[in-house]
Amino acid sequence: MSINVILPELGENITGGTVTAILVNVGDTVDLEQPLLELETDKAVVEVPSSEAGVVAEINAKEGEKLNVGEIVVVLNGAASNSSVPDVSKEEVAPEPEAPTSPEPAAASEPDESPPVSRPVVSKEELPPPAGKTVRAAPSVRKLAREIGVDISVVSPEAPGGRISAEDVKKHAKQILTSTAGPSGGAATVTSLPLPDFSKYGSVRHEEMSQVRKMTMESMTRSWTTIPHVTQNDKADVTELEKFRKQKGKQIQAAGAKLTATAILVKVLAEALKRFPEFNSSIDPAKEEIVFKEYYHVGVAVDTPAGLLVPNIKDVDQKNLVDISLELMGLSERARERKTKLAELQGTCMTITNLGGIGGTSFTPIVNAPEVAILGVSRSAMEPVYIDGEFQPRMMMPMSLSYDHRVIDGANAARFLRWICEVLEQPLTLFLD
To answer: Do 138-180 and 2-108 fall under one CATH topology?
Structure first.
């Protein structure tokens, strides 16, 4: 019996990766969850495990080749004919009546014809609006078009009378996404003006982007072009927090980790997400829904030689500072060694990016879709603060909160960031709610 092992889902906005190593040969017997190959994604190099046990009959991947989610990685010969695993090859020859006319594995191997649906990115240059066209649409429909990046003047209405409906806008967005998807079936190809010949002005050298950098470019472009960003800045007085960190640092050091400002921020952010649920959500413009999450997985951006990786700590609300510090140290080490686990990259609710160790007074972090906010931290510095009629030296931490204005209003963003600052300044604030 033949069993097709396909490339599983790799995480939000990850449609595939490049094969860096094949770990099995034809004729090998593999167990359930045994690694079959190594794949480089935009986040890390991950091992792809086998979803079944059996004997390798065919390998459908080569080193250096790109694989997309849903494509067949290997074909196994099962150990028993009465296995509960369906015979995919038989289903392809004689599908059941309710099955699609094109077998699922075959469709997955042709991502250009059936790319995964994600938030659309529309190019107005490709579809210029007809001259003098009158657009008939309700205000709510026009708002939907603006939110998902569709030029409503080029949408074709299906209902008699020429009035554009919400369904017309959604259908048009899906068509644009399909027609503009790149070779990998991912985000729409980024178009830009051609570069001048820089070699005319002096010596230059060309270096191919790493896979991490390529995928970062696609991900950040998609996030920036589909999310209306706003950034709220504030400062937290962390004078007392620094004293606490130094006093309790030895206790956590004895456990094998280090108590950092990032570890404390991870815990505080999880508590903030509980009190401000709109920050722990994702927006689905096509369905006009907001998905609220009831778990608290906080991502931490890690600077590595290969680029920025964002693993996350799961269920932060259920962990103490010792647990978080130990886990944060392990995540950072694995990220720098390109050994991040696949599960560590999936399910992030909100991300922290801390540049305080490098410097700066503020910056505008880009929200990583489908998240709706990101917290940036800059270097703390001693500043004079006017307290009780006199200036006192206080350690101030600058923070920058970027958020998706479709979901989060400015007043709530200011409250969210101020609440975080107040908890950092006085932890007993936690007990006021």
So the answer is: no
| Residue-by-residue DSSP string for 128-189 | PPPTTPPPEE-HHHHHHHHHTT--GGGPPP-STTSEE-HHHHHHHHHHHHHHHB-TTS-SBP
* 206 catalytic residue (yes or no): no
Place of tokens 């978080």: 324
- With bands split at pLDDT 50, 70 and 90, how would you rate the model's confidence at 433? low
Query: What's the CA gap between 4 and 95, in Å, rounded?
Result: 16
pLDDT per position as a tens digit, 377-409 = 999 999 999 999 999 999 999 999 999 999 999
Amino acid at 310: V
Question: Any residues with CB less than 8 A from the CB of 135 and at least 6 apart, and which?
Answer: 152, 153, 164
In this predicted structure, the answer to whether residue 207 has a pLDDT above a threshold of 50 is yes
Note the pLDDT of residue 363. Answer: 96
DSSP 71-127: SEEEEEE-S-TT-SS--HHHHHHS--TTS-SS-HHHHHT-TTTSPPP-S----TTTS
Question: In angstroms, rounded to a whole number, what is the distance separating the alpha carbons of residues 34 and 21?
Answer: 14
Q: Where are the domains of the chain?
A: 2-108, 138-180, 213-432
- Torsions phi, psi of 274, nearest 5? -65, -40
pTM value surpassing 0.70? no
How many CA atoms are closer than 13 Å to the CA of 161, on its beta-carbon side?
6
Residue 123 one-letter amino acid: S
Q: Name the CATH superfamily, with its identifier, for domain 213-432.
A: Chloramphenicol acetyltransferase-like domain (3.30.559.10)
Output Rg (C-alpha) for the chain, integer angstroms. 25
**pLDDT band at residue 178 under the 50/70/90 scheme:** low
Question: Any bridge partners for residue 87, and if so which?
Answer: none
Interval 85-94 mean pLDDT: 38
Q: What is the pLDDT of residue 141?
A: 81
Q: Which residue among the candidates 206, 229, 297, 405 is catalytic per the annotation?
A: 405
For residues 10 and 17, is the Cβ–Cβ distance under 8 A? yes
In this structure, what is the dihedral angle of CA atoms 52, 54, 59, 64, given to the nearest 10 degrees?
A: 50
What's domain 2-108's architecture? Answer: Beta Barrel (2.40)
Q: What is the CATH architecture assignment of 138-180?
A: Irregular (4.10)
Using one digit for the tens of pLDDT, what is the confidence trace for 210-261? 777 777 788 788 888 889 999 999 999 999 999 999 888 888 888 888 999 9
Q: What is the dihedral of CA 373, 379, 381, 385, to 10 degrees?
A: -10
Give the angle subtended at the CA of 143 by the CAs of 142 and 149, to the nearest 5°: 90
